[in-house]
Amino acid sequence: MVYEPFEMGPIRPPSEAYSLLIRVTRNCPWNRCRFCATYKGARFELRTVEEVKQDILAAKHIQDDIKAQAWKLGMGNNIRAVALAVMRQPPTHAHLNIALWMASGSQNVFLQDANSIIMRTPDLVEVIRFLKETFPGINRVTSYGRSHTAAHKTLDELKQIHEAGLTRLHIGLESGSDTVLKVMNKGVTAAQHIAGGQKVVASGISLSEYVLLGLGGQDLWREHAIETAKVLSAINPDFIRIRTLGIFPGLEMCADVESGAFIRQTDEGMVAELRLLIENLECTSNFASDHSGNLLQDVEGKLPEDRERMLAIIGQYQSMSPQERLRFRVGRRAGIYVSLDEMEDPRKRLTVEGIIEKLSKGTGEVDDDLVHTLRLRYT
Ligand code: SF4
């Protein structure tokens, strides 16, 4: 096993792909959501301030080392090139993370794991201050947090965390429907989502709320969309980020699918859900679809001014013939199309038609379960 100079957790949001990763706690303190297996079987642990400071110093040491190498090679003015070279043959994952971060400007840091704000406020403040003293060039420090925890912190505590340097919090809202939240064992109510989200906004920390399309299944999709829009409208976060439920093997909710208690939402159903959500949002948030698991990744913009443009993209998809919609879904789920415009590309069209031919065994019919399986393979 390779010795890692500092610890890193398993995930970070796509928008933090080039961030330095500093693990302030291990795993998820809740860990009971039926749709999430990220930390299953892993015990939650708080880390001591001293332990985290040692990791920050280890990260600094690697950064200094890469800078020293650059000067030794006479490339002190082109540290990025040396960082890129380290990325090609990194001795450890930590070196890869630092090199990637340095090649991208060394400005952003993401604090792992699932709910960093559960740390005692003075401890988190101390860690963030130390991080900023060690790396004075950083200008964005972000983390994941739970609404439940944010709701239990005082506004003053969140302000202290913000003043120390936490610029953004990513919260998994998933749904604003109490029924859906309960069925999925999210461990939070719509009222707590609102209380936590509003407090984060009031503290000055930028807030990203993540919505999980499909979480209501076929029975609760309307309630899921409408209640989610209500909660988001009450919070008015800086970002609403869309995710799409994928029922991967190993999730607790697989048992619900097998028993028939949960009927998976179709792609077409999720497009209707997305429309209903956008139609009902009364806020000024940025609406982002920054994940490859989303069918219509072009549906992005600023609310309310881009609402009609976003609905027009949904309308464009919904007005296509069933065959064309199938072609887009298969192309999208097979990783060939990103946007609807790419359907004009004759080479891509041929590839997608070949896949449909194979999947449908020549009939041209591909059922939704097969498209979902394709999606699980490519995202
Ligand atoms: S709170 Fe987040 S990380 Fe924890 S189990 Fe739920 S979805 Fe997963």
Write the layout of secondary structure elements.
Layout: E1 20-23, E2 25-26, E3 45-46, H1 49-72, H2 79-88, H3 93-103, E4 108-112, H4 121-134, E5 140-145, H5 147-152, H6 155-164, E6 168-174, H7 178-183, H8 190-203, E7 206-213, H9 221-235, E8 239-244, H10 254-259, H11 267-280, E9 286-288, E10 301-302, H12 307-318, H13 322-333, H14 346-359, H15 368-378
Parallel strand pairs: 1-4, 4-5, 5-6, 6-7, 7-8, 8-9
Antiparallel strand pairs: 2-3, 9-10
Helix pairs in contact: 1-2, 1-3, 1-4, 2-3, 4-6, 6-8, 8-9, 9-11, 11-12, 13-14, 13-15
The protein binds iron/sulfur cluster.
What does this structure look like?
- The chain is an alpha/beta fold and 379 residues long.
- It is 47% helix and 12% strand.
- The strands form two sheets. The chain has an eight-stranded mixed sheet. The protein has a two-stranded antiparallel sheet with strand order 2-3.
- Helix 9 links the parallel strand 7 and strand 8 (239-244).
- Helix 9 packs parallel to helix 11.
- The longest helix is centred in the N-terminal third of the chain and has 24 residues, at 49-72.
- The radius of gyration is 22 Å and the shape is globular.
- The protein starts with 19 loop residues before the first strand and ends with a helix.
- 41% of the residues are buried.
- The mean pLDDT is 96.
- It binds iron/sulfur cluster.
- The site of iron/sulfur cluster has 10 residues, from loops.
